[in-house]
Design a protein that fits this description.
Layout: H1 41-45, E1 53-56, E2 62-67, E3 73-80, H2 94-101, H3 114-119, E4 123-129, E5 134-141, H4 145-157, H5 165-183, H6 190-198, H7 213-218, H8 221-231, E6 237-243, H9 247-258, E7 281-287, E8 293-300, H10 308-320, H11 325-333, E9 337-346, E10 351-359, H12 365-382, H13 386-403, H14 412-424, H15 429-439, H16 442-452, E11 458-464, E12 511-514, E13 520-525, E14 531-538, H17 552-560, H18 569-579, E15 582-587, E16 592-599, H19 603-615, H20 621-638, H21 642-655, H22 671-676, H23 679-689, E17 695-701, H24 705-716, E18 741-746, E19 752-764, H25 770-779, H26 786-794, E20 802-805, E21 811-821, H27 825-840, H28 848-860, H29 862-865, H30 869-881, H31 888-897, H32 901-911, E22 918-923, H33 925-933, E23 939-943
Parallel strand pairs: 2-6, 7-11, 13-17, 18-22, 18-23
Antiparallel strand pairs: 1-2, 3-5, 3-6, 4-5, 8-10, 8-11, 9-10, 12-13, 14-16, 14-17, 15-16, 19-21, 19-22, 20-21
Helix pairs in contact: 2-5, 4-9, 10-13, 10-16, 11-12, 12-16, 13-18, 17-23, 19-24, 25-28, 25-32, 26-27, 27-33, 28-31
Length: 949
């Protein structure tokens, strides 16, 4: 299957992909695949319903309420009808900048909004800005709802008096570092080129949401005040409350907190026509990338146009499905590309249809582009097949059904209602979109392509080379002139409401059974949506690799779902899509996993497909060679990406090369080992680790265990272990003692440096780390932590800094990550060390306010932490990995409430020693090295390129 190339950030090595089973010798896949019997799309569509109540306050605020009492939480989502498309010339980035300012405090809730939100136990809390809107959202325990509504209403109606020049200057710096962080990635400047080429001067979609450095520099107090007055009134907004609340209570509370806010202007976006290029535009650029990338794009109609769904279906058939035309021809067939994709970005006023192809190193980009155009033109000329369109429908509806389990967050039911109301004036627009998918025909898809994709395209080809000069921010932003702004007359308001007692989390009861072959099944029930999630865990993981064969485990897992004895890779992809199921393989450091996500009406055939993948992988030699080439390309890509470069280097520096944890955290291995892996190695690795006596099955479903167990028995009950002994991981090699030093990986032309450092703790992941983790919430692992507050919220040098313990079962690493602007790299490490030493040795331990915030946040947030099946499944698997009881989540609150500041200080002091921290810095050595030399630590400079093999 095609995978989204996941490069695991070192601090979060928990990303799980999926494995598969092979026992018999590989056999050539037949020319046919077994027929898959799936539930009709109409049956799945009928499952989708979000009942709601709608009312409008006298000031024009539209309120939507959805009742869902499965958990004692309420999602609060406020959507403002303003985005980057509404920014006039000279003010690009203002909508996003103001989103940041809205977290900086309001008149009656001064200081960072993250403090009270953390204190109330908010989960899924964030704010985002797009071309078309700005939103703010959080899911809170029901007793905290009134305080959340007070906070949201305060920043809607009582904001301006809290914005100071200092706040503006700070958030300007944070946003500019967010921009640097994105721009610093490979291909990171391409989006700007696409927008400027596709849209004419003056078009509202011509500039990016992040804006330009120059316009951000120019933002002044008066311009941001005007922006707020023009766009943030209640009658330009939609409020959604979804969860444990009734419409009557919602009406009472919204009137109480939002009712007094006066009306403001309503944003009427300027016209945004769908432009057509007068002739094809072809542009070539260079970047510090590992392989050429081809991007073709057209402006197409908006999400509300009748052609939007047909175009989205066309994109899926062309390059979205795992069985897409481009995948089958360019990736699997001719093998001239390592990855492909196509999508229709459906915006409010326009859409952008784009095709992306990462060219296999050594292939001619022009020839690959020409072949891609042939495939596109063939699809336009002949149209998609009925089977292709049906698979797209099923996959889309399945994803929609499963996504609506959550009440809030980045997806969920609140988002579906808010989007429909804001863009279409209809909260049930999601239903119309589902119905459009269910009804779309191949002829409609073909007609939409013929109408829109036969127009001239913009084609951008990125080649490896030196990147163009970077537009930096001014040293003295013109908007930071500190000219006194007129005072704001504040309006008296009620006090912030208190939070009532929050009940302890009720984690689902966990049941167990065994299949006839002894495989244990661990089950929990969740019935919010008709969906089932299954994870088959194997005690293997990246640590199972022999030091001479790094990358073997993950390559074997990748191969598992690339064909079975009965189906080749394309047939397997088609079977999953027809069922609306997703089978994936992957590994964390300690576990390998094969996962299934399925809609329950299609559960039996989905589990049968899962069993075929697990028990009968083909490991075809042709697929091995294809994936080997893809893996080598992925490793080359890692050597161009800041975070990936750091996470390749740091593990060995901390653990040593002999420890199973001392290898690149991505699990991809290195060039020499991947080139040397044989088909025999793959089969032996499978036989050693992917076997029933090394497996445990975890299930979360809306169906009871009594119905699930027979389905699993049919798929896995007769699976037997091979006679050879199962694998054993060897952790006997000593972990070397470390002293503080810096390894600088030279990555020229980097506007930002990526800092990663840490040490190996004496503790094991299976130890009780609750007290230490609570202490580290104060120090490093929280938005309000000491290090993030310093580098982001005080100094403005970074978009975000974190320090946390990775979720390993054995000796755990404490990992610090800090992307910072290049000219503050050395000072940033000095500031980090100062924060650590002040906390651990300088008498600046946990304060009463920090203790209260940590205890409240860590206990109150439990209510919203296990709302979804995926969250419950993840908790069950983590409990098993770390040797915790099934009801561990229910034990956390009582223990956390009893914590003292002295206990937290002692736990941190016992665990951490900054004098042992090893630092890796990825940045431009010509800019960074003098700063690092000034720190007085040994500095070793390395190239980002691999050492000679």
């Amino acid at each position: 299957m095609r995978r989204a190339g996941s490069l695991v950030a070192a601090a979060a090595l928990l990303a799980v992909s999926t494995p598969v089973w092979a026992s018999a010798p590989a056999a050539q896949a037949p020319a046919f695949a077994p027929a898959v019997q799936a539930a009709p799309v109409s049956e799945l569509v009928a499952e989708v319903d979000i009942p709601y109540t709608k009312f409008t306050l006298d000031n024009g605020l539209t309120v939507l309420v959805h009742e869902d009492h499965k958990a004692p939480v309420v999602a609060v989502s406020v959507w403002y009808n303003v985005g980057s498309k509404d920014e006039p010339a000279g003010k690009t980035g203002f909508a996003h900048l103001f989103e940041h300012l809205m977290f900086g405090g309001s008149e009656n809730a001064p200081g960072s909004y993250f403090t009270p939100m953390r204190n109330m136990g908010a989960t899924d809390m964030n704010g985002t800005t797009s071309f078309d809107r700005t939103n703010y959202f959080e899911t809170v325990p029901t007793p905290a709802l009134e305080q959340a509504l007070f906070m949201e209403s305060d920043r809607m109606g009582y904001m301006l008096g809290a914005i100071t020049q200092e706040t503006l200057d700070l958030q300007r710096g944070v946003v500019q570092n967010e921009k640097r962080q994105g721009d610093n990635q490979p291909y990171g400047l391409n989006w700007y080129k696409q927008l400027e080429a596709l849209f004419p001067e003056g078009h509202p979609y011509r500039h990016s949401t992040i804006g330009s450095m120059a316009d951000l520099d120019a933002a002044s107090m008066e311009t941001v005040r005007d922006w707020f007055r023009s766009n943030y009134g209640p009658n330009n907004s939609v409020l959604v409350l979804a969860g444990d609340i009734t419409p009557a209570k919602a009406r009472e509370l919204t009137q109480k907190y939002f009712g007094p806010i006066p009306r403001g202007p309503v944003n009427h976006p300027v016209p945004a026509e769908v432009p057509t290029l007068p002739a094809p535009v072809n542009e070539t650029t260079q970047d510090r990338v590992s392989n050429a990338r081809i991007q073709m794009s057209w402006v197409v109609p908006s999400m509300l146009d009748a052609d939007s769904v047909p175009l989205s279906v066309a994109a899926s058939v062309l390059g979205g499905l795992a069985s897409s035309r481009l995948d089958n021809e360019l990736v699997r067939g001719e093998q001239t590309a390592v990855s492909v994709g196509a999508g229709n970005i459906a915006l409010h006023r326009v859409g952008i249809f784009q095709i992306q192809i990462d060219v296999k190193p050594g292939e001619d980009p022009a020839a690959v582009e020409a072949r891609a155009r042939e495939i596109l033109n063939g699809l336009i000329a002949d149209g998609p097949t009925a089977a292709e369109v049906e698979r797209v429908k099923t996959q889309y509806v399945s994803n929609t059904v499963q996504g609506l389990e959550q009440v809030g967050g980045f997806g969920g039911k609140a988002v579906a209602l808010a989007e429909g109301q804001l863009y279409a004036g209809d909260p049930e627009h999601y239903k119309k979109e589902l119905q459009a998918y269910a009804a779309v025909t191949p002829a409609q898809v073909q007609a939409a392509m013929q109408k829109w994709l036969t127009r001239p395209a913009y084609t951008l080809t990125t080649l490896p080379g030196e990147r163009e000069a970077y537009e930096e921010a001014a040293e003295a932003p013109s908007g930071a002139n500190h000219t006194p702004a007129p005072p704001i007359e504040r309006v008296a308001r009620m006090p912030k409401p208190e939070i009532a007692a929050v009940a302890n989390v009720d984690f689902p009861s966990v049941q167990r059974t065994r299949l006839s072959n002894g495989v244990e099944v661990v089950y929990a029930h969740r019935d919010a949506v008709p969906a089932t999630k299954i994870a088959i865990d194997f005690d293997a993981g990246l640590a199972a690799d022999d030091a001479s064969k790094l990358g073997l485990q993950s390559l074997m897992l990748d191969l598992m779902d690339e064909g079975t004895h009965m189906m080749n890779a394309t047939q397997l992809a088609e079977a999953q899509e027809a069922l609306g199921a997703t089978i994936s393989t992957g590994a964390s450091m300690d576990r390998s996993v094969v996962q299934l996500s399925a809609v329950t009406p299609n559960l039996k055939p989905s589990v049968a497909l899962l069993a075929d993948v697990v028990r009968n992988p083909a490991f075809a030699s042709s697929e091995l060679e294809r994936l080997r080439a893809t893996r080598l390309s992925r490793i080359a890509a890692e050597r161009t990406q800041p975070a990936a470069l750091a996470s390749r280097a740091l593990p060995e520096l901390m653990y040593g090369s002999s420890n199973p944890y001392g290898r690149p955290f991505s699990g991809n291995g290195d060039e020499a080992s991947v080139k040397a892996i044989t088909e025999a190695d793959i089969r032996a690795d499978y036989a050693e680790w992917i076997r029933p006596d090394n497996a445990k099955i975890f299930v979360v479903s809306d169906k009871p265990l009594s119905e699930i167990a027979p389905v699993l028995e049919a798929g896995f009950g007769t699976w037997t272990a091979p006679t050879a002994a199962k694998g054993v991981k060897d952790f006997s090699a000593p972990i070397p003692a470390t002293t503080s030093r810096i390894v600088l990986i030279d990555r020229p032309q980097s506007p930002q440096s990526y800092i990663m450092g840490g040490e190996v703790l004496a503790a094991q992941g299976t130890d009780d780390l609750l007290v230490f983790n609570a202490a580290n919430n104060v120090l490093g692992n929280d938005f309000l932590s000491r290090i993030n507050s310093d580098l982001r919220e005080t100094k403005g040098w970074s978009y975000g800094v974190n320090a946390s313990v990775a979720g390993f079962a054995g000796r755990v690493p404490y990992l610090v990550t800090a992307p910072v602007q290049a000219d503050q790299t050395g000072p940033a490490i000095a500031a980090l060390n100062l924060q650590f030493n002040d906390f651990l040795k300088g008498g600046k331990g946990v304060t009463p306010a920090e203790l209260e915030r940590t205890v409240n946040g860590n206990t109150r947030r439990l209510a919203g932490s296990y709302e979804t099946s995926a969250a419950v499944l993840g908790a069950m698997r983590t409990n098993d990995l770390l040797g915790r009881p099934d009801d561990y989540p229910e034990t956390v609150a009582a223990r956390t409430n009893a914590l003292t500041a002295a206990e937290l200080d002692a736990a941190a002091k016992a665990a951490l020693d900054p004098s042992r921290f090893v630092w890796v810095v990825v940045g431009d050595a010509s800019v960074v090295k003098p700063q690092l030399d000034a720190l007085g630590l040994p500095v070793e400079v390395r190239s980002a390129a691999p050492a000679a093999q």
